[in-house]
């Protein structure tokens, strides 16, 4: 199965267990609103790619790890969009969860999606109990305290903090968990060795995000976006210019690919990552920088 | 170790892993604010009592199950107290988390406490991987969709719902998980058989709560509390009167004690539960009803 279809099928299977007549319908609808739609599934695709490079000997474990990473990502977006944080109206081209379903259901949707990550692991990894603890630990560390997504967001409430550094870390943590979880799901003996791949790709993705914004609105070229500046978010284009940012992105992808640990599918994974990241730079900018 | 001390020690150990200089200090402080203080620890005590009745052959697993249940309970209180839900100023005699730390940290504190439940299980049950999946599943079901605490709270956003039934279920679900998790942590072959004990005690606790309110403010006797009526919460004293409520409470405790499955420590557990629940009815009311 093509990995995009495999991820959607795994997400659908996870939702089938919670979308029962016994549950409150609006919560289920809000959870679906948060997870299905225009998401690129970059993190679960990465998780799958790593597991496949390691042999993917237990596909149910791989699927559940990929689902866990994606629903955590969606959970963090739902809570981050709320009025007390970014107060966002639109996400992935649709109204945000709290705009459609109200704040109480937005809180509960984020909560229930966090829990769904662990529910999915509990069911998907049951045939490989010796992998379960590691996977639960990886996924929990990626979202909780002291260094997961929640902790990253909580740094915004601290008086003294290097915001640029924290934003880099916040993006990186879930990418690093995606690769580590992919390794752990497939029984790789040293899943931690996979974290550098994820961390570097997370950083590259952030640079690509800055480049996409410039491509979408060239007038912003070289100027920090208003919200970035206000929130202290780093912006690679503002710091390095378009050409510098593309150079930085390529260097990060190179470091990512170079960090891949020995495994049966190392070459295929390298090719896969170069292919995926090749689409990171918008064509107009790539031509412009060539 | 006396079970109260054992629970505090286990909670402290769980917090030690998140209270590191690497994490944002206010988040850690807010999490501690939510968990430590005047809580009665009724659910983790129950979890421990069941595990001990089943032999408690793996104390680290028992401790982590008890911690998971308690921090989930605290997480749900933090989110339920927020302005978009109950908008509560005081909890357990202290200002609520959002009053002290603000709404953003209250959201994140609830999130991180949910995650802490699973982090604690991942570490505490690592020596018994075959128990891990079951415990993660029990704990996740108790808080998530379609029938855990989040789902219970989400019913309030539905237009047609039997609110009295939903409030009973909402209290019962975590008590039932506490007893089921206690059995699972100690390797009982059929942990589901322990759920009736928790569900009945949860219902008894709710009746006791109504009785305590009357004891604290006798003028409320027989009248539904304003908030209960507004939110459609059931109130045993309003429905049955003081004597009727005490009779109902005793019947529920009897059903709870009678439901205890065969296990090595059945008699000791029955005595323990009669002792704990004996303190449920405030003395003044017990005398009055005698």
Low-confidence stretches of chain A: none
CATH-derived architecture of the largest domain in chain A: Orthogonal Bundle
Write down the overall mean pLDDT of chain A: 90
Query: How many DSSP E strands of chain A?
Result: 2
Rounded radius of gyration of chain A (Å)? 19 Å
**In CATH, what is the class of the largest domain in chain A?**
Mainly Alpha
Strand order, main sheet of chain A: write it out: 1-2
Oligomeric assembly: homodimer
Order of helices and strands of chain A: HHHHEEHHHHHHHHHH
Domain unit count of chain A: 2
CATH superfamily of the largest domain in chain A: Farnesyl Diphosphate Synthase
Contiguous helical run count of chain A: 14
Biggest sheet of chain A, open or closed, and with what strands and sense? 2 strands, antiparallel
| CATH fold description of the largest domain in chain A | Farnesyl Diphosphate Synthase
Biggest interface pair, residues each? A-B, 61 and 61 residues
């Amino acid at each position: 199965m093509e990995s995009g279809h495999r991820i959607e099928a795994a997400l659908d299977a996870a939702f089938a267990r919670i979308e029962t007549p016994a549950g409150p319908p609006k919560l289920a609808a809000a959870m679906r609103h948060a997870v299905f739609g225009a998401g690129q599934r970059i993190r679960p695709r990465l998780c799958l790619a790593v597991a496949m490079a390691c042999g993917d000997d237990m596909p149910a474990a791989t699927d559940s790890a990929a689902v866990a990473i994606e629903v955590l990502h969606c959970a963090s977006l739902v809570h981050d969009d709320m009025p007390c944080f970014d107060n966002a109206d639109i996400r992935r081209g649709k109204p945000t969860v709290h705009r459609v379903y109200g704040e109480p259901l937005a809180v509960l949707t984020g909560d229930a999606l966090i829990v769904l990550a662990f529910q999915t692991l509990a069911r998907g990894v049951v045939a490989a109990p010796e992998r379960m603890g590691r996977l639960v630990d990886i996924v929990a560390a990626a979202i909780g305290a002291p260094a997961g997504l929640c902790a990253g967001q909580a740094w915004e409430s601290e008086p003294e903090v290097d915001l640029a550094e924290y934003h880099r870390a916040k993006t990186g943590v879930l990418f690093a968990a995606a690769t580590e979880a992919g390794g752990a799901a497939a029984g790789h003996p040293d899943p931690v060795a996979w974290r550098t791949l994820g961390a570097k790709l997370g950083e590259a993705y952030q640079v690509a995000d800055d480049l996409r914004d410039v491509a979408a609105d060239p007038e912003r070229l070289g100027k920090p976006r208003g919200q970035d500046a206000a929130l202290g978010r780093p912006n690679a284009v503002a710091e390095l210019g378009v050409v510098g940012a593309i150079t930085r992105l390529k260097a990060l992808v190179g470091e990512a690919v170079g960090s891949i640990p020995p495994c049966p599918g190392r070459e295929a994974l390298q090719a896969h990552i170069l292919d995926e990241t090749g689409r990171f730079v918008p064509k107009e900018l790539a031509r412009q920088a060539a």
